[in-house]
Amino acid sequence: FKNNANKYYGKDDFDLYNSLTDNSSEIECLFVERTKQLLKDGGIAGIILPSSMLSNEGIYTKAREIILQYFEIAAITELGSNTFMATGTNTVVLFLRRKNNYESINLKKSVERFFNDWQDVTRNGIEKPVSKYVNHVWDGITIDDYITLLKKAPNKTVANHEIYKEYRKKIKIKTEKEFWNEIIEIEKEKLYYFILVYSQKTVLVKTGEKNDEKHFLGYEFSNRRGSEGIHPVQRSKTIDECTCLFDDERFDNPAKASTYIYKAFAGDYEYPIHESMKANIFRLRLVDMLTFDRAGFEKNISTAIKKKVKIESKWDLVTIDLLVQIVRGATYSKEYQSNTKTSNIILTADNITLDGEFIVTKELYLTDNYVINQEKRLVRNDIFICLSSGSKEHIGKVAFIADDTNYFAGGFMGILRAKEKMTAKYVYILLNSLLRQDIRDISTGSNINNLSGILNEIKIPFPPKEIREKIVAEIEVLEKKEKETKKSITKAKEKIEQCFKEAYEKANVTYKLSNDEIFSVSIGKRVIDAELDIHGKIPVYSANVFEPFGYVNKYLITDFTVPSVLWGIDGDWMVNYMSANKPFYPTDHCGMLRIKITEVLPRYLAWILHKEGKQQGFSRNLRASIDRIKNLTIKIPPLSEQQKIDLEIEKIETQIAEAQKIIDSIPELKDGVLKKYL
User: Fold this and answer.
1) Which residues form the DNA methylase adenine-specific domain (predicted)?
2) How many CA atoms lie within 13 A of 222 on its CB side?
């Protein structure tokens, strides 16, 4: 290429031209520079490159410098070796937006000024950027410590730091003067790129490996005679229908990767990630994808998901163990467990809800002669936390203890205890919001997820007392609103229950569910994993008749013009009312009841079925089989009574739906408070 290109291009056409080797195997680097030349400010591009572009050295480092200086990286899509036929090459797609040249030029001058005056002023729109750089890279030292390094007289803290030791080990310079000049240049370059990318977020799309990759792409290649070429992974479907990469009709399909890239170009990094995409879509800070803590700085862009918990803030960061005492829960031998209630009550993770409420639902008892350290008792202003769990969903969940209790934290639990309420509440707020998902992600263990030895190292912003007080006060207003709204929902549900009970008292007719002239009783059909489709439109209900466990694109039932009543055949006893014109697919763990006469309304039928099933003791240990359901006899009130409560319940359910919207908005409002102050 290089020899042939001499006819058309010269060294003046590409800054990277002279860095090409004779065989020009790095021609993709010129593609990057050419993209820079072609795009105007704000222009966007998607460019497919070998994965080596992100990590190789030499001319690749220079190409990455062009990318970082002149583009925002909106997204990176990693594509495995099965993406393109017969190449065997791992590739990435970089989704880029062209920046103004002056941004990088002016920042470079600004960084030069810092190394002359050492003033940590706002640069590139970032407050105290050098302090942020030191916190991010030089863990454990202050900006004052860092400046001693730049003055070529490092204090003891810097001299003992691993980065400084690595500089001493790796920089092979003859004189001390050359050594310091080299360090200053490296630090200058690191600080420049740190500030340059600090505000950028990047969407990372991972297609997975082997079968996961194949199903994410939605296609596979075949070399079999007569079937050569590319084929959809599901028969009778097109690749467009199978792929998770894109939707050729919609820009906002949450089950397609292209949606998150589209949102990134629009600056929206808060768009909820669909459950089916959580193993493939990640949002990272670009600054976390670069490695600054090595002697060399090659601007490698890492797509590895680093397990790290850190809130970027304008305030100093401190480790949690400086603010709270971490108390482990009580451990005990099984011989001390009691089946009868005692004064030694142990609480497990079951007593903390996923949204951070303390609700006692499960007590364990130890014999009264067993002595538990009183330090492990839950008292006012404690933070009750799950330190170990087999579930990622439950690990790290927290509850704030408002009053002294007679309960002790269990063995898989812990207590975070501060000296005063305001600090405790502030730490709780962060653990239950900004840090919640990060803590799930950093937990370790093959079978049991564990936070032991990790929690105390987590750093959180520690603003002045008046700022913490404002945060706590504003969050408590939202918590009060949330609590009151939840109470209103509870009261509304109680009102619905009362409506049914009043109607039941007027019941004057008895029906047996085995009467085929009045009721249609049936069960669904087994659904295997291979039949589930993350893009499916029809929800599949199993024993849990309230939450679908997946989706399909086929029907078992064709007529949805009438309502249905679903019940769970095994598992906890559940009954759900399904309104008309709402398609669903029941499995063989889900029963369906429909009414053939007008004298019985389905909403009342769902309630009375649940009531009768509860009396029968249907549970995990007693299946609600179709025969047992048909054996039930139900009491029905006059139609006028059923119609009356139907109208009333519809009104109440509308009120509940509106209240739920308020509750659903609270987490975002809390995050807004934290972002405003931190």
Assistant:
1) 17-136
2) 11
Lookup result for tokens 């993770």 = 349
The mean pLDDT values, 10 residues at a time, for the chain of 678 residues are 57 72 73 93 94 88 95 94 74 95 94 94 92 90 94 94 91 88 95 96 90 85 80 81 87 92 94 88 92 90 75 83 92 91 96 94 95 96 93 90 96 92 94 87 67 80 94 96 96 97 96 96 89 84 93 92 96 94 96 96 97 95 95 96 96 96 94 92
Strand partners, 75: 95, 203
Domains defined for the chain, CATH in brackets: 2-99+201-289 (no CATH), 107-197 (no CATH), 317-462 (3.90.220.20), 509-636 (3.90.220.20)
Query: For the packed helices 176-197 and 143-150, what is the interaxial angle rounded to 10 degrees?
Result: 140
**pLDDT score, position 55:** 87
CB 97, CB 74: distance < 8 Å: yes
From the list 522, 517, 553, 484, the residue with the least C-alpha distance to 629 is 522
Max distance between CA atoms of the chain, in angstroms, equals 102
Using N-to-C axis directions, what is the helix angle for 143-150 and 129-137, rounded to 10°?
Answer: 90
Contacts of 517 (CB under 8 A, 6+ apart): 596, 597
**Rounded to the nearest 5°, which phi and psi values hold at 86?**
65, 20
Say if residues 305 and 282 touch (Cβ distance below 8 Å). Answer: yes
What whole-number distance in Å separates Cα of residue 180 and Cα of residue 161?
16
Residue 9: the pLDDT is 60
Backbone angles phi, psi at 65, to 5 degrees: -60, -40
Q: What pairing do the DSSP bridges indicate for beta strands 229-232 and 509-512?
A: unpaired
How many of the other CB atoms lie within 10 Å of CB of 156? Answer: 9
From the list 309, 308, 61, 47, the residue with the least C-alpha distance to 193 is 61
Contacts of 291 (CB under 8 A, 6+ apart): 297, 300, 302
| Structural element, H or E, at residue 49 | strand 44-50
The per-residue DSSP string of 400-457 comes to E--S--SEEE-TTEEEEE-SSHHHHHHHHHHHTTTTHHHHHHH-B-SSSEE-TTTGGG
Q: Rounded to whole angstroms, how far apart are CA atoms 399 and 608?
A: 36
